[in-house]
Amino acid sequence: MRPTGKLHLGHYHGVLKNWVKLQHEFECFFFVADWHALTTQYDDPSNIEQSVSDMVIDWLAAGVNPGSSTMFIQSQVPEHAELHLLLSMITPLGWLERIPTYKDQQEKLREKDLATYGFLGYPLLQSADILMYRAGRVPVGADQVSHVEITREIARRFNHLYGREPGFEDQAEAAIVKMGKKNAKLYRNLKKRYQEEGDLDSLETARALLKEQQNISLGDRERLYGFIEGGGKVILPEPQPLLTPESKLSGLDGQKMSKSYNNYIGLREVPDTVAVKIRTMQTDPARVRRIDPGEPEKCPVYALHKVYSDADTRSWVEIGCRSAGIGCLDCKKPLIDSIVEEQRPLRERAAEYEGNPDLIRSILEEGRERARDAARDTLDEVRSAMGLSY
Ligand code: SF4
């Protein structure tokens, strides 16, 4: 995630709650993409440092757990830059120019000069970020799928250019024998399911099974990854997008919650400000007076009730609004309570970190070390595949 400063409830519902869930289902790497921030903010990097710290506190407040996932800052793992450089050697320019967000973003951010090498190359930097950890899945919204797709193409091109190994199938078979009869049979079944039915879960299970095999070396394991995916040696596995539904959370004015629309509630905003923001929200314009009936579907307050309130409260709003039985302030009250209640544990967790920069530093250092270990393994293989292991 790019460091854009303090996060809001749209980020919480759209991304962070999902991360918190994923960290218990997968081995996760979450990083602050500070180099990515520079691709568009190179002319004024002055607030990046503060944004990094605010964002990390927000992650921790939301429940991203450094014990269950690896959290780090991109620029502190310089291996990302080297992999980006090496991948740039094999990436055709046209692939980058064709990515839909390239032209879109240039249009949107017209006030900035984005005719830069860094901006054109940022999807490739993202590919390096993903391939570095040999990620199986990348949680993205629909608008980012093309970035995962180009990552897959780059991995395929890399493996095709550098992954050829004579006698590869024989070596893979020899490695399978080492797994013992029962595991070998299970592994072959999983391979079949992946290759014939494209069943991604079987790929994951096969990988987990391989990880458990104490007697299989890293090299053999890689050979088997390649074997199951049906190609030559897979140095950089192709990741799959893990589609996450876009946040449904609307902002104070009914549009999507966003900093640029200034219609947001901060993730750890204090209760008094939350109350003021909700109390001053626009409602259905038809309700000029208390006695005028309204239509909840035309009201941004009701859009928030849909996320925050149970069925009974929603029905109380619908009936009360349409019959003018309740006033807008009555309607807003339970919403304020629910939001403040949702934020309570987040604010409490954040308080532990806010006054303790050393703790945050040590979390990020630990994450950096774990990330670098994984990154070095990948880079060793990449360098060697590209003939640079001298
Ligand atoms: Fe909106 Fe509630 Fe007022 Fe109806 S009663 S207009 S839903 S704030």
TrEMBL record:
This is Tryptophan--tRNA ligase. Keywords: Aminoacyl-tRNA synthetase, ATP-binding, Ligase, Nucleotide-binding, Protein biosynthesis. Belongs to the class-I aminoacyl-tRNA synthetase family. InterPro entries: aa-tRNA-synth_I_CS, aa-tRNA-synth_Ic, Rossmann-like_a/b/a_fold, Trp-tRNA-ligase, Trp-tRNA_synthetase. Its EC number is 6.1.1.2. GO terms for molecular function: ATP binding; tryptophan-tRNA ligase activity. It catalyses: tRNA(Trp) + L-tryptophan + ATP = L-tryptophyl-tRNA(Trp) + AMP + diphosphate + H(+). It is an enzyme of class 6 (ligase). Pfam families: tRNA-synt_1b. It comes from the Bacteria. One of its GO terms (cellular component) is cytosol. GO terms for biological process: tryptophanyl-tRNA aminoacylation. PROSITE patterns: AA_TRNA_LIGASE_I (PS00178).
